Amino acid sequence: MLLELIVVSVIAASTPLLLAAAGELVTERAGVLNLGVEGMMIMGAACGFAGAYFTDSTLLGALCGIAAGAALAAMFAALTLGLAVNQVATRLALTIIGIGISGLIGAGFVGERITPAPHLALPGLSALPFVGSVLFGQDAFVYCSVLLILAIRWFLYRTRPGLVLRAVGDNHASAHALGYPVLRIRLLAVLFGGGCAGLAGAYLSLAYTPFFTAGMTAGRGWIALALVVFASWRPLRLVAGAYLFGAVTILQLHAQGAGMGITPQLMAALPYLATILVLVAISGTRRMAGSTAPASLGVPFVPDR
Amino acid sequence: MLVLERRTERSMVAMVVSPLIAITLTLVTMAILFALLGKNPFSALAVYFLDPLLDSYGLQEIVVKATPLVLIAVGLSLCYLANVWNIGAEGQFLIGAVCGSWLAVTTHGTEAGAWVLPAMLVLGALGGALYAMIPALCRVRFGASEILTSLMLVYVADLLLDYLARGPWRDPKGYNFPTTAEFDAVATVPLLIEGSRVHIGALFALAAVAIVWLVLSRTIKGFEIRLVGAAPRAARFAGFDSSKMVIFTFAVSGALAGLAGIIEVAGPVGHLQPNFSPGYGFTAIIVAFLGRLNPIGILISGLFLALTFIGGEQAQISMKLPLDLTRVFQGLLLFYVLACDSLVLYRFKWSSRSASRAA
Amino acid sequence: MAATETVMGKGEPLLRAAGITKRFGTFAANDAVDLDLHPAQIHALLGENGAGKSTLVKIIYGLLQPDAGELRWNGTPVVLSGPAQARALGIGVVFQHFSLFENLTVAENVALGLGPGETLAQVSVRLAEVSRAYGLPLDPAREVWQLSAGERQRIEIIRALMQNPKLLILDEPTAVLTPQEADLLFTVLRRLKDEGRAILYISHKLDEVKRLCDTATILRGGKKVATCDPRQESAGSLARLMVGGNIGDVAVAPHKPAGNPRLILNDVTLLPDDLHGVRLANVSLDVRGGEIFGIAGVAGNGQDELFSVLSGERFAQGEVDVVIDGAAVGHLAITQRRRLGAAFIPEDRLGHGTAPRMKLSDNALLTGHAAGGMVQRGFIVRDAMLATVDRATKVFDVRKARRDPEAVSLSGGNLQKFVVGREILREPGVLVVSQPTWGVDAGAAATIRQALVDLAARGSAVLVISQDLVELTEIADRVAVMFAGQLSQPMAAASASRETLGLLMGGAGMELSYAGA
Q1: For an interface test with A, which of C91, C96, C112, C122 has the most A Cβ atoms less than 10 Å from its Cβ?
Q2: Which pairs with CB-CB distance under 8 Å and at least 24 residues apart come from C238-242?
Q3: Hey, what long-range contacts does A4-9 have (CB within 8 A, 24 or more apart)?
Q4: What is the pLDDT of residue C299?
Q5: Span C278-301, pLDDT tens digits
Q6: pLDDT tens digits, B51-108
C-alpha cells in the first residue's frame, strides 16, 4: 500500500514539471530561451483557480490557466521577438510581474476551496490492485501530460511544421533566407510554451493541492527549465527527468514523515541541490559528446532589410 | 510596415529619453491598475510616489531601503556588463547575513569588544563571495548555466536561514519565535545621525558606487569587464580570460550582496530571522537594469525603487492596497525600461515596401 | 547601350531587371542597375566586394525589395514578396554563405528548401537521383556538421536543382573550393546551360569568368559600368572596369639576405577544440627576419587553429613548440607574446580583431594594453589611446566620420587599415596576419600589402595566412600550403606555379612533399 501511495504521489508531483518542461522544450527548440516559466506557472495557478472557482468547472479553470500563461508569454514575445531585447532580463521582469499579479488575483482566494479535479474511474480497471490506481485512477492532467509529450515528439520529428520549427531554432538566418517566417514561428512556440506553463500551474491549484497560496510554485518553473537541459532537448528523456525529480520531491516528504531525524530544511533543499547536480553532470558530459542544444538558442533575430 | 533598423551609432538623446518614457508608461499602467482595483488613481499614485517624500521618516526610510539595493545592484552591474548572469544575489545576500550573524550569535553576551562588527562585515562579504563561487565554478568547470544554479541556491539559502533561526541559533528567551537574540551593541551597525534610522551602511553603498564607477571608467579592469561582455572573442584576443571574469564578477557581486545582507541584519533589523528580506536581491536586478548598469544610474534607480517599497507599505496601510502591487510595479518598470532600451540600439523605420510597389 | 544590344540581342530575356535601386540609409547599394538574363547562357556578375552584387541577388530572389525599378519575368512585371515566390517562378540560388542547418540531416535540409508537398522519404529518393544524375555524391542521412565545405555546397546545388529552376544563381561558388572541385562545378554548370537554363554567376575571379561565362555585367560602387563578352576581353580590361583605373602596384624593396629565424614552429600537433575543428599535425616552419612567409590553402584546413596556436589564444602542447625571438612561448598567453614584440591580426576584424560596438580608442587599448604607455598602474591613459587612433588614421589613411567612432561604423577596408595600423605602428619584430585583405577594396589592399612588405624590409618576420594566391605570390618570399592540418614544404614564391599550389591545396602531392622532409 505504501509503495502504491508513493507511486501515485510521484506521478502527481511529476506532472506539473512535465507539463511546464514540455512547453519550454518546444519554445527552446524554436530558439527562444523563455526563463519565465515560474512566472507563467504561478499566473496559471492563480487564474486557473479563479476560473474554476467562478465556473465550478475544472476544464474551464484549466483553460483560464492556459490563457493566463499564454498572455504573459505574449508580453515576453512582444519584447524579445518584436524589439529584440535581451531574453534573460525580459524574463526576469515578467517573472516578477507574474508573481505580483498572481498575488493580486489570488489574494481574494486564499483559504477558499474548490472541487478538486475529478479522477478517472474505469469500472473494473480502476479497482485492480496497484495497477488500477496507478494507471487508471489518475486525473485528466496526468493523461494530458503524457499525451502532450507523445504529440510533441510526433510533431517535432514526423511533421513538416515540426521540421521547420527545429530549423528556425538551429539557424534563424538560413530559415529566413529560405522564406520561413522566423518571428511568427517563434511567437507560436512561445505562446505554446506559455500555455503549457499555465496548464502546469493550473494543475497545482486545481488538482495537486487543490487551493491557491502565494508562491505555491516554489521554484518548479526553474526546475522545469533545468529539466529541458537534462533531457538534451529530447521529449522522451523529459519524461524520465520529470519523474526522477518528482520521485526526489516525494521521497524527501516521506523521509520527513517517517521521522528519520534528518532536518526538514535539508530534505526540502534536496530538489534544488539535485537540480544543480544534474545541471553540472549533464553540462559536463554534453561538452564532450557535442552539443545538441538548438544553435540559435537565446540569440535575438532581427531580419536584415 | 514598421521595422527595426540597427543604429550605426548609439543615440544620445534616446539614452536620456528612454528611461523617462519607461517611467511614464509604468505610471499610466499603474493608474489603470488602481482604477481597476476601485481606487482613485491619482490619490493612489500620490500615496505611492509623493507622500514618502514629504516627511522626514519617509526620506530616511528611502535611504535605509536603498542601501542594500544599491550595494547589491552595483555588484550585479559588473556581472551583467561582463555577460555573466548572476540572478541569485538574494541567496548571496542571505548567506552574507547568516555568516556575519554567526559571530554576533557566538559573541552574544560576552565581553567582546569593538572588533566584532568589522569582523562581522568581513565575514558577511566573504560568505556572500564564497556562496557565489558555487554557480561560478559550476559554470567555469562544467559549463552549467549560472542562471539556473545561482537561482536554485536562493531556495537553499532560504532554507538554511530558516533552519538556523528555528534551530540552533534561536533565542531561548524569545518565546519560541524563530529569531536570534537582538545583537549586542558591538555587533550593531552604528547610526549615521543619532536618533534617525539612517546607518553607516549608506556610506558603504556610496563608496561602492564611487569605486565601481572609477573601476569601470578609468581602469584596465573596467575595460576588461566591458570587453568580455561586449565581444568575447575579441576579449580573448586581447588576452583576457572569460573564465576568470566569471569568477571575478561573481566574487565581487557575491561579496557586495553578502555585505548588504549583514549590514541589513546588524542594522535596521537587529537580529537574524527568516523572511527578513523583502526580496532585495531580486529587486536589485531591476535597479541594475533601470540604472543602465551604470553606478551613478544605479544610485538614482536604487533610491527610486526604495521609494516604491515605502509607498507600497503606506498604500497598504492607508488604502488597503495589497503589497503585491509593488512587485507588479517593479516588474512593469523593468519591462518598459527594456522595451524603451531598444530605442537606444535600434530605430523604427517605415519599410519601403510600399514605395517599391508604387514605382 | 548599343554594345549591350549586340551582345544580348537574342530575343526576349528570361529575366529583365530594369533600373533597380536599393538604398540603405543614404548609401545606394544598387543605383539604377539593368540586367538581362537569357536562357542557355552563363551570365557573370562581376564586381569587387561591396560593389552591390549580393544586394542585386537578394532583390532577384525576393529577399530584399527594391526602392525603385522593376523585375520582368518572361516580359511580365513581377513583384517578389519573398523567396517562396521567386522559387515558384523557377529561380534557385546557391548562396556564398551556405544557408544550411548544422544539426539537421542532408535530406531535412533539402526538404526545407523545397516547400511542402513531399515526405522526407520521397525527398531522400529524389535527392539520390539528382545527385547521381549530375555526378555530385551525397548521403541524405548524414547531419550537415559532419560534411566538408565542398559537400555542403553540393547540398545547396542539389537543393536548387531539385526544383528544376529556369534560372540558377550562384554567389561566389568557388570561394571555398579547391581548383579541382571548381573544375567539377564548371562541368556541371556547362551541362545545366546545355539543358537550356539561365545561370547568373557571381564572382570577382576574372580567369573563372573568362573560362566559363558567355556574358558579363560589371558593377562598381552600386552602378552598372558595362555589359560585355568576357571571352573578348583581356583580364586587364575586365579588372580595370571592375576597379576603375589602375591599381597601385606594390613596390617590393630590393632584397636583403634573410636574417635569423625570429618565429619558429617545432612540430606542432594540436587537437581540435570543437567538433568542426581541424587537427594540426606536425606543423613546422621558421620565418626569418626580413622575410614574408606565406601560407596558402582553402579556408577550414587548419588555418584558424594555426593562428590561435601562434597567437597564444590556444596553448601548444610543448613549451618549445612555438619560439618567438629565441623565447619558448608555447605556454605563454597572448599578452606575454605581445610583450616579446609579437603582433597578431586575425581574419575576422569585426568581433575578433575589434569589439564592434566599442570606440576605436578602446579598440586601440584592446591590443595596446600589453605594452606601451596606455596603462599606468591599472589606470588607462586615454590620451595615449587616442594618439594611437590618430597615428593609424594618418599613416594608413583611415576614413571615418569622427575622430573616435565605434568600430562597426567603419567600412571593411577602413577598419582593416585601422587594425593593421594599430599593430604595425608598434613596430613588431614578429607579425602574424590572417587574410590581410579579405573583403577589402583594391586601394586599401594595396596600402596594406605595401605596409607588410615595408615592415619585413625593416627586419621583422612576417607570416601571412591567405587564400589569395595572387596576393601571396606578389608579397611573399616563401610559400607553403596548408591542407587538412598539415603544412607542405615551403618553396620560393617566385618559382611556385599556380598548378603546384592548386594541387597542394587540393591535397595532392602532400605525401610527396613530406617524403622529402
Answers
A1: C112
A2: C238/C46, C238/C206, C238/C209, C238/C210, C239/C206, C241/C46, C242/C46, C242/C47, C242/C48, C242/C51, C242/C204, C242/C206, C242/C218
A3: A4/A129, A4/A130, A4/A133, A4/A134, A6/A250, A6/A251, A6/A254, A7/A130, A7/A134, A8/A133, A8/A134, A8/A137, A8/A138, A9/A250, A9/A253
A4: 72
A5: 789 899 999 999 999 999 887 778
A6: 888 888 889 999 999 999 999 999 999 999 999 999 899 999 999 999 999 999 999 8
Residue C7, pLDDT > 70, answer no
Residue-range definition of the domain harbouring residue A69: 2-217
Q: Is C343 on the interface with B (CB under 8 A)?
A: no
Å from A181 to nearest chain C CA? 10
C484 at the B interface (CB within 8 A)? no
- Looking at the fold, whether C208 and C110 belong to one and the same domain comes out as yes
Amino acid at C410: L
Q: Which residue has the higher pLDDT, C342 or A135?
A: C342
Interface with B, mutate which of A79, A176, A265, A275 (most B CBs under 10 A): A265
Among partner residues C95, C104, C275, which is closest to A177 by beta-carbon distance?
C95
Band (pLDDT 50/70/90 cuts) for residue C422 is very high
Q: Report the residue of B4, B5, B233, B237 to disrupt the C interface, i.e. the one with the largest count of C CBs within 10 Å.
A: B237
CB contact under 8 A, B230 and C358: yes
**Does residue C434 belong to the interface with chain B, where contact is any CB pair within 8 Å?**
no
The cell for C97 is: 554563405
How many domains would you assign to chain B? 1
Of C389, C334, C339, C396, residue with least CA distance to C365: C389
Number of domains in chain A: 1
Task: Tell me whether residue B180 is in a domain.
Answer: yes
The DSSP output letter for C230 is: G
Partners of C280 in beta bridges: C270
Residue A164: list chain C partners with CB under 8 A.
112
The ipTM, to two decimals, is 0.83
Q: Between residues C483 and C178, which one has the greater pLDDT?
A: C483
In a domain, A285, yes or no: no
pLDDT at position A288 is 43
| Structural domain contains residue C256 | no
Q: How far is A17 from chain B, CA to nearest CA, in Å?
A: 15
Using DSSP's 3-state secondary structure scheme, residue B4 falls into strand
For C99, which of A163, A164, A178 is closest by C-beta distance?
A: A178
Is there a contact between B144 and A284 if contact means CB atoms under 8 Å apart? Answer: yes
User: At which residue does the C-alpha cell 528580506 appear?
Assistant: B277
The predicted structure's pLDDT at residue C50: 65
Interchain proximity B160–A269, CB inside 8 Å: yes
**Chain C contact for A157 (CB, 8 A cutoff):** no
Out of C313, C362, C379, the one facing B237 most closely (by C-beta) is C313
User: pLDDT at residue C3 above 60?
Assistant: no
Query: Higher model confidence: residue C160 or residue B228?
Result: B228
Interchain contact, B237 vs C67, CB within 8 Å: no
Q: Which of C22, C97, C103 would best serve as a mutation to test chain A binding (most A beta carbons within 10 A)?
A: C103
Q: How far apart are CA A31 and CA A53, in angstroms?
A: 37
pLDDT in the model for residue A127: 62
Q: How confident is the model at residue A232 (pLDDT cuts 50, 70, 90)?
A: confident
Whether residue A195 is contained in a domain is answered as yes
Q: Does C409 contact chain B (CB < 8 Å)?
A: yes
B231 — contact with chain A (CB < 8 Å)?
no
pLDDT single digits (tens) B322-348:
878 888 888 888 888 888 877 766 666
Domain range for B237: 63-297
Of residues C275 and A183, more confidently modeled: A183
| C168 and C302 belong to one structural domain | no
